[in-house]
Specification:
Keywords: ATP-binding, Nucleotide-binding. The longest helix has 18 residues. Helix 3 runs parallel beside helix 5. By secondary structure, this protein is an alpha/beta fold. It has a single domain, classed as Rossmann fold (3-Layer(aba) Sandwich). It starts with 15 loop residues before the first strand and ends with a strand. It has a nine-stranded mixed β-sheet with strand order 3-2-4-5-1-6-7-8-9. It has six helices and nine strands.
Length: 225
């Protein structure tokens, strides 16, 4: 996947990664690149969006890069029910059963069929939930990731959730990718910080990058320690 461009060549496929951004929507460009690369390599992708419809998702992806093998892409738009994530992972997960009953609900989509699952914006689903619900959802995603060999990418805008909830999510996931922006003397400097990543040694420096019509490219001229 695109992570190899950042020097992360040994990231396992069965991981749950948190993709954070301080301001902006670069992470969506990042997700579109990952989706495009995954489809091109024959992987099945689930793209779950809380902000866009299914048609809007596919239209945006086609603007970025024509979708190859569209039959491998499942786009789920206008998603707003965090409990449905558990339904798609495990219909009888203990939290789902506690909130909805043992025999309630239908399995509309099965995440276990995917190779890559993107949930954008993950944090927005839990704005009004307590940390127990958040941690149990992360546990469920980690469990199915290990069992079914799925890569999960969860997006978050920094500051959407309480600080304690953000720290819990960072501590539980396998890796954290942070897109950061600095404004200095009329210039915009963009950096990627990867404080933790399963299978990789932590990077010593943040990675400078640019956003172009082709997606995200590393800027080898600038590095921040």
């Amino acid at each position: 996947m695109v992570l190899t461009s950042f020097g992360l060549k040994n990231v396992p496929s069965n991981v749950v990664l948190l993709v954070e951004e301080d301001i902006g929507d670069v992470k969506s460009v990042f997700f579109r690149k990952i989706t495009s690369d995954a489809l091109r390599s024959g992987k099945k992708v689930f793209y779950i969006s809380t902000r866009n419809s299914e048609n809007d998702l596919k239209e945006e992806m086609n603007k970025f890069d024509s979708i190859t093998k569209p039959e491998l892409l499942t786009a789920i738009g206008n998603f707003s029910d965090h409990i449905a994530l558990l339904d798609m992972c495990y219909k009888r997960h203990r939290l789902y059963s506690r909130l909805h009953g043992e025999n309630n609900g239908s399995l509309l989509h099965n995440i276990s069929e995917a190779d890559v699952c993107i949930i954008d914006m993950f944090a927005a689903l839990f704005v009004h939930e307590d940390t127990e619900v958040i941690s149990e959802t992360i546990e469920a995603l980690i469990s199915i990731s290990r069992k079914e060999n799925i890569t999960f990418l969860l997006s978050a805008d920094m500051g959407i959730l309480p600080e304690r909830a953000e720290k819990i999510i960072r501590s539980m996931v396998d890796g954290v990718i942070q897109f950061r922006t600095e404004y200095i003397a009329g210039k915009i400097n963009r950096y990627i910080n990867i404080p933790k990543m399963k299978g990789s040694i932590p990077l010593n420096k943040m990675i400078a990058y640019n956003v172009t019509s082709q997606g995200i490219t590393m800027d080898m001229r600038e590095r921040v320690g």
